[in-house]
Design brief:
- The protein has 568 residues and is an alpha+beta fold.
- The chain folds into two domains: 383 residues, Na+/H+ antiporter like fold (Up-down Bundle), CATH 1.20.1530; 176 residues, Alpha-Beta Plaits.
- 62% of the residues lie in helices and 10% in strands.
- The chain is built from 22 helices and eleven strands.
- Strand 7 and strand 8 form a beta hairpin.
- The radius of gyration is 28 Å and the shape is elongated.
- The mean pLDDT is 80.
Length: 568
């Protein structure tokens, strides 16, 4: 039996002019499988996780005969894997992205910018102290901060300068390749080291995170005895006009003991008791506006003997596509069914509803009303888990297409165009689609399992391709003097992160989970984000990563080009 086909797949075609695509894909799969197997290794409970794929890729790339890998296929796998990874991060955090900007996002961006400028300053200082050519240091800087678009921008700027030295041009990419692996590992180890230096306890961080969410994001229920005589006889709608706060009055208990549903037309009478939903931040102002707090249990509100119609509360999942993007004003649920919506649960956060709020497929709404009316509202909103299992591919691929277009738009010319690239563009579009997609009728919901699956596949593809590409010539570069670049890269990686981590924790009182995402985002490093997400077990690293990533990507590309212009 002729087994040449098997040899071609496993060993390559043997013809550098016509490399085998099948062999390239087989090699990528072998690298990823090997890396995942090694990721199960833990030292004192710590694992490098998916980062192992990068190192197995370097090992395979080093021992492979030259020309056996199809470079076009490898390049496509790397770029498309990165697009998948960042796009689904953006899609997940999009609904909460803009609210995160209001609650500390600008502080995160400022800290990330400080990491960038400290790194650039460190690289320039090493250039002055050691005499290492500045173009080479730009390559080392790009590898140390794991920023491929910055490397590409720097190489293009140097090539177009008209004064390019071929040896120095080669040293840019080699400096990147040598510094990149320890750049990845350095970021992760810095996270681990800072955990022990700052004496971080995950249990305490979880409690702090829960307290922070309770204080700033989540609505709570309060019972108030209405005493504001100025509002006696006025409607709830008028009360909304007089106090500029977000709140919902779901039920009113009259002095007779009867409990009724509340809406904008309900009249308030002194002596009534009100069931109010608002955030803890607005609690003091709202309760003082209406009257004085009183203690009432949920049973007292839901099952009173004098209540003519018993009220029930139920979470209903929105699954009907024709509801996607509609506002509460459009749906007129209160008028049609006689029910009240008290909360909307979206992307892990409870929100206070208002008439102009646009609903999205995947939202859960808390409905209060008579049981028969709640059942009717349930039919109108969907509440079918099976429908959410069906993938919505259109917004994914239209988002990727728009992201690639945005990433390719020249934003500045200094003198070469500064672009967001194939990582920054899709991330920004995914955030925008996740937040505003329903406004245009796009169903952007994907199940958490599907989101994680595609993110992990994209990350694995990206790491394997980068590792294989860096493996060829990696050892020769180190032996030929590149070992110094490794040390320079470690300094550039670790020093800015340590300084900013100390500032963020000691001065900014940043939660450790948020700080890990900040560190990964400031270095535009997907493997570090993967490590942070696995370690934390929550989405806080991904939220802070996505908050700083677009600005960081722009600044990384810009500073790399500016440094190169200084060199020529």
């Amino acid at each position: 039996m002729n087994l040449d086909w098997l040899k071609t797949i496993v060993m390559g075609s043997g013809n550098p002019a016509h490399p085998s695509v099948a062999h390239t894909v087989f090699l990528l799969a072998a690298v990823i499988a090997s890396g995942i197997a090694l990721s199960r290794i833990k030292i004192k409970g710590v694992s490098l996780g998916m980062t192992w794929i990068l190192f197995t890729g370097i090992a395979f790339g080093h021992f492979l005969p030259s020309g056996t890998v199809d470079p076009d296929t490898l390049h496509f796998i790397k770029e498309f894997g990165l697009i998948l990874f960042v796009f689904f991060i953006g899609l997940q955090v999009g609904p909460g992205f803009f609210s995160s900007l209001k609650s500390g996002g600008l502080k995160l961006i400022g800290l990330a910018a400080l990491v960038i400028f400290l790194g650039v300053g460190t690289a320039y200082a090493i250039h002055l102290i050691t005499g290492e050519p500045l173009p080479t240091m730009v390559g080392v800087l790009s590898g140390a901060v794991t920023n491929t678009p910055g490397l590409g921008a720097a190489q293009q700027a140097y090539a177009d300068s008209g004064m390019a030295d071929p040896d120095i041009a080669d040293s840019i990419s080699l400096g990147y390749a040598v510094a990149y692996p320890l750049g990845v590992i350095g970021i992760i180890f810095t996270m681990i080291i800072m955990r022990y230096v700052l004496r971080v306890d995950f249990k305490t961080e979880d409690e702090g995170l829960a307290a922070m969410s309770k204080e700033t994001n989540l609505p709570h229920r309060y019972s108030v005895e209405f005493t504001n005589e100025m509002l006696d006889g006025k409607t709830i709608a008028i009360a909304h006009m007089l106090i500029n706060r977000q709140f919902v009055i779901s039920r009113i208990m009259h002095k007779s003991g009867e409990i009724v549903m509340a809406d904008g037309n309900s009249q308030l009478s002194v002596g009534d008791r009100l069931r109010i939903i608002c955030t803890d931040e607005d609690k003091d102002a709202i309760l003082a506006f209406f009257g004085k707090p009183v203690e009432m249990t949920a049973d007292e509100w839901g099952a009173t003997a004098m209540q003519s119609t018993p009220l029930v509360s139920r979470r209903i999942l929105i699954t009907r596509e024709d509801v996607n993007g509609k506002t509460f004003a459009d749906l007129r649920l209160r008028t049609r069914y006689g029910i009240n919506i008290t909360r909307v649960h979206r992307a892990g956060v409870d929100l206070i509803p208002y008439q102009g709020m646009e609903l999205q497929v995947g939202d859960k709404v808390m409905v209060v009303g008579p049981e028969a009316a709640v059942a009717q509202a349930e039919k109108a909103l969907g509440n079918s888990l099976k429908k959410l299992d069906h993938p919505n591919l259109f917004p994914i691929f239209i988002g990727i297409a728009l992201g690639v277009l945005l990433g390719s738009v020249p934003l500045m010319n200094v003198p070469q165009p500064v672009k967001l690239g194939l990582a920054g563009g899709p991330l920004i579009i995914a955030i925008l689609i996740g937040r505003f997609g329903p406004h245009f009728g796009l169903v952007t919901y994907t199940t958490m399992s599907a989101n994680l699956m595609l993110r992990e596949i994209g990350l694995a593809m990206f790491l394997a391709a980068v590792g294989i590409g860096a493996g060829d010539g990696f050892v020769d570069a180190i032996v030929g003097g590149g070992y110094k670049w490794v040390g320079y890269g470690v300094i550039i990686t670790v020093l800015p992160l340590v300084i900013v981590a100390l500032i963020a924790r000691l001065k900014g009182k940043l939660n450790y989970y948020t700080m890990m995402g900040l560190m990964a985002g400031a270095m535009t490093d997907p493997p570090a984000l993967g490590f942070a997400s696995t370690s934390s077990g929550n989405d806080m690293p991904a939220v802070s990563y996505a908050t700083v990533y677009p600005v960081v990507m722009f600044l990384r590309v810009l500073t790399a080009q500016l440094l190169m212009l200084m060199a020529v």
